[in-house]
Amino acid sequence: MGKFAVLVVLVLVVFWLVRRALLAKRQGPPPAAGATTDGELVSCAHCGMHLPRAEARLAGDRVYCTDEHARLGPRQG
Ligand SMILES: [Zn+2]
Fold first, then answer.
1. What pLDDT sits at residue 31?
2. pLDDT, tens digit, for every residue of 12-24?
3. How close is the Cα of 77 to the center of ligand 1, in Å?
4. Sign of the CA dihedral 46, 51, 52, 56?
5. Is there a contact between 54 and 37 (Cβ–Cβ < 8 Å)?
6. Which of 40, 64, 68, 75 is most buried, taking the most CB atoms under 10 A from its CB?
7. How many whole angstroms from 41 Cα to the centroid of ligand 1?
8. How many CA atoms lie within 13 A of 75 on its CB side?
9. Largest Cα–Cα distance in the chain?
10. By the 8 A CB rule, do 36 and 54 touch?
11. Whole-angstrom distance, CA of residue 37 vs CA of residue 22
């Protein structure tokens, strides 16, 4: 009886760990615009500087390093 209870608890713990790992993988839904992830480096559409996507400013389907560059828009020429 005791061993059976331990087995049940073990199965539940493994199930919980697997579920948690699966949920952690898709933490935060990706933006509809593209198949990008949080850790990905993106380049500013204005100056070309690379920065983590989490720190980038989004404007339409482009990303910028600062609010100022987002306001200026993509670099012309
Ligand atoms: Zn920039």
1. 56
2. 999 999 998 888 8
3. 15
4. negative
5. no
6. 64
7. 13
8. 10
9. 76
10. no
11. 16
**Is the Cβ–Cβ distance between 9 and 27 less than 8 Å?**
no
**Whole-model pTM?**
0.49
Check the CA dihedral 10-15-19-22 and report its sign: positive
Distance (angstroms) between ligand 1 centre and the Cα of 37 equals: 20
Separation of CA 69 and ligand 1 centre (Å): 5
Tokens representing 46? 């204005």
* Residue 72 burial (10 A CB sphere; 0-12, 13-18, 19+): middle
35-67 CB burial, b ≥16 within 10 A, e <16: eeeeeeebebbbeeeebebeebbebeebbbbbe
3 state SS of 1 = coil
Name beta bridge partners: 58.
63
